[in-house]
Structures are given as C-alpha cells and as structure tokens.
Specification:
The protein contains 3 helices and 4 strands. By secondary structure, the protein is of the alpha+beta class. Strand 2 and strand 3 (48-54) form a beta hairpin.
C-alpha cells in the first residue's frame, strides 16, 4: 500500500471553491480501482492537504493519467498561491491503540 500526501497552497479567497471542487471529485476518486481511502485536511496555517491510500503506486498512477484528473488538476491549480508539494510514501510501520 502507498499513501499519497499533497500539500495544496490554496489562496484564501478560493478556499470555499476548492472544498466544493474536492467534494465534487471525491466520488470519482474513491471509485478508482485501488483507491482505499481519501481525506481532506487543513493545517493551522490554512494549507490544504489531501491524503489518499492506494493498493499500489500503479493504481495511483492509473488514476493520475485519467482525463478526469487532468481536468480537475488544471482547474484546481488556478486556485494556488504557489507550487503544490506531493509525497508518495510506503507504509513502514503502523500502530494504533
């Protein structure tokens, strides 16, 4: 399994529109083969972060090559104040209480 974190520097004036775009995209993303989990987070300094879990990096990349992703990413990028940062990670250890 891989986890993908994307830090999105959304301009404050676009925050509401971004959340709306995320909520509209969420059903499609979750319907993609290999997508196990999707979250939207907001940091205390008002950066948005998406966290998604995928069966494999191949599944993630298959989603990222869809026309839907390309269209959505192009739209969301117009809301940025800077460059997004993305991290694809592999789970090494997990513990819960």
């Amino acid at each position: 399994m891989v986890k993908r974190l994307v830090v999105l520097p959304i301009l404050p004036m676009h925050a509401e529109a971004f959340v709306l775009a995320y909520n509209e995209a969420k059903p499609f993303i979750l319907s993609q083969t290999g997508c196990l989990h999707l979250e939207l987070l907001r940091s205390r300094d008002d950066q948005f972060i998406t966290l998604s879990h995928w069966d494999s990096e191949d599944h993630l990349n298959a989603y990222r090559s869809t026309p839907f992703f390309e269209k959505t990413w192009k739209h969301v990028k117009t809301m940025f104040s800077g460059k997004a940062q993305a991290f694809t990670t592999v789970v090494i250890d997990t513990q819960s209480n």
